[in-house]
Amino acid sequence: MSTLSSTKDRRGSAGLLFATPFLVLFVVLFLAPLAYAAYLSLFQTKLVGGTKFVGLDNYARAVADPLLLQGVLRVATFFVVQVPVMLLLALLFALALDSGLMRLARVVRLGIFVPYAVPSVVATLMWGYLYGPDYGPFAQLSRAVDLPVPRFLSEGWMLGSLANVVTWEFVGYNMIILYAALRTIPGDLYEAAAMDGAGAWRIAWSIKLPALRPALLLTLMFSVIGSFQLFNEPKLLQAIAPDVIDSAYTANLYAYSLTFIGQQPNYAAAVSFLLGLVIVIVSYVVLLTANRRRTP
Amino acid sequence: MPGSPQFTRRSFLAATGVAALGTALGGCGSSGTAPAAAVAPVSQADIDKAMATPTELTFWTWVPDIDQEVALFQRKYPAIKVTVVNAGRGTPAYTKLRTALQAGTGAPDVSQIEFQYIPTFTITDSLLDLRPYGAEALRDKFIDWTWGQVSGQGGEVWAIPQDTGPLGLLYRQDIFDRHGLKPPATWDEFADAARKLHAADPQVFLTNLAGNQAAAWHGLMWQTGAKPYTVSGASDISIKVNDEASKKLAKFWGGLAQEGVIGTEADFTDGWYAALNNGKYATWITAAWGPVFLAGAAKSTAGLWRAAPLPQWNAAKPASGNWGGSTTAVVKTTRNPIAAAIFAQFLNSDPESAKLFATKQFFFPATKALVADPGFVGDTPAFFGGQQVNKVFADVGSTVDPTFGWPPFLDQVVTDWTETVGKSLTAKTDAVAALDQWQSRITTFAQGQGFTVR
């Protein structure tokens, strides 16, 4: 008995030892700033009058803030439209690559993945140039063939243009996750299916898709977080479309503007926490829906 | 904010007798109040001692090659070592400075600050009043309006002017010739020319008023005689961005935008640079730093541009505004106030150093001596067909109103402008109505920050 327990102890302390670097970084770089932000969100600092404790006033204000609501609704729309398109594309590419029927599969795989290796700032600057209404290649092409110039950066198109940039950036990333999951499916399942007379489509539908469910759920969770925290792309396109992307275009951009333009870091902290809460709720709803569908 | 500033300031004003001057020059400044102790001049003996004591100063600036000017200072004061740090230009630099000030550590001794941002830092009591270090003796060296910009409402001297940007008009001589236009003397003539030019050639616009450039708008407000922001006391502010003068401005530009005879695209973007090069715009309403900038940004149009003063609202009473330019300010947390203050003063008032800014960095000067210097105003750049461009802007400089002031929360004001007035220009909607929205947004913000808005 004693030998066993001491081995357990030793194992436990070794585990703790291995986890320590992570835990230290986790506490210093994640929990501590989070706690500090929570602390800040309970105060109010004014240019005239200084700092005072206001309890949950900032949260009360944020809940009723039309600019925050508008930002959250906009990223929610973005999520509902962009994420299905992106994941469907990622799924199609992953299935095509996995089917083994594609020529130059390695080149294609790399080609789809490369945009993810491009920093999102660079990607957005590049797309900002492509979208340009005067000198962008699309505009020049349209003019050359006497078609109306597409207004990628106009109010009506902007969300779609942003969705396109994000899709371009992240299809490859999601594809790799799905593709890796596909590679773990044992080959004998396919053989058995083939023996039973299943074709490629039937195999994809009845074996691959069900096996992909956990991986799909993972990519979906990442997408929830990514969509609701949309920041880099709108922030950068703001420079070339200042009349469309205002300082509260997305919820994250709003928090940023509150801090660095409005000098209201306290209120921004409250806004950030509420945004975090929204993300938790949406993630939970997504999980719940997915799990309910799993149980017949 | 420190307590009971009211009494302190009043007694200090009475004691020094600069009350009238302070109100006249800095009715616009910030609400920062100078403690009585700061006004007592530092003796020359103390200054001499400090300047001979080995000291290190940190100087945040975005000015390229400023080492040359700093070297002049160090030649005169070998005991003082100045470390130049490029902390970014404009807003990013201010964000860093604010962060350092809030953290209570890491702030520089001396910092580059644009004129319009001085009140943003005096409201938080972050700048050192330079009067005790002899700054007032420099007043006459500097162009009147620049001194007005660096003066606080209590007569404080918050910074020393370095470069300026009085507004003028750069225009394409070739396009003007082709369409029989001459530089418009009044805004009415300007509007007529805009309509005529665009009708004659739908590809060309007389000018572009960028919907993202609140600084240019403020320069034009300045010319029109608007007094949008007046801070008085520690917490009172009057906000009038939609007064009669501003409404006249909004009606004028909003009208031209709605007619579609001017451009409203964002400036300093790829499209805008291309437009300057390919003749989409026949003029650029810009500041005195514009000519040098344009010569670098639109190389393909060398020799085609000329400079003229801004069109006027009242030709009998020429006026202009300012866009850009900056100052050197001493950060209040410095542990070496004397050395820092002397450095800020030397850098911009020493004749050799000031001249170097004009000849090496191509800054448009802030000193009276340089804008009268034949070597400076007589320069005839080939880009402008040999015209004495500096002379045009030097003459404009004397017509800039010295009492225009800035709000203590400029970033918010600028963002709100872009989202109301700027947007209305681009969207061709009612710019005067947008002015009211702008007014109401700033008012709400100011109240939220604890100001009493009158």
Give the key terms:
heterodimer, A: 296 residues, mainly alpha, MetI-like fold, two-stranded antiparallel sheet, 12 helices, B: 454 residues, alpha/beta, D-Maltodextrin-Binding Protein, domain 2, 7-stranded mixed sheet, 3-stranded mixed sheet, 13% strand, globular, disordered N terminus, TAT_signal (chain B), Extracellular solute-binding protein (chain B), Bact_solute-bd_prot1 (chain B), SBP (chain B)
Short description:
The complex is a heterodimer of chains A (296) and B (454). Chain A is an all-alpha fold and 296 residues long.
Commentary on this structure:
Chain A is mostly helical. Chain A has a domain of 193 residues: MetI-like fold (Orthogonal Bundle). In chain A, 75% of the residues lie in helices and 3% in strands. Chain A contains 12 helices and 2 strands. In chain A, strands 1-2 form a two-stranded antiparallel sheet. In chain A, helix 5 crosses helix 7 and helix 11 packs antiparallel against helix 12. Chain A starts with a helix and ends with a helix. The mean pLDDT of chain A is 90. Chain B starts with a helix and ends with a strand. Chain B has 2 domains: 186 residues, D-Maltodextrin-Binding Protein, domain 2 (3-Layer(aba) Sandwich), CATH 3.40.190; 228 residues, D-Maltodextrin-Binding Protein, domain 2, CATH 3.40.190. In chain B, the strands form 2 sheets. In chain B, strands 1, 2, 3, 4, 7, 8 and 9 form a 7-stranded mixed sheet that branches. Chain B is α/β, with parallel strands linked by helices and 454 residues long. In chain B, helix 4 links the parallel strand 1 and strand 2. Classes of the chains: A mainly alpha (296), B alpha/beta (454).
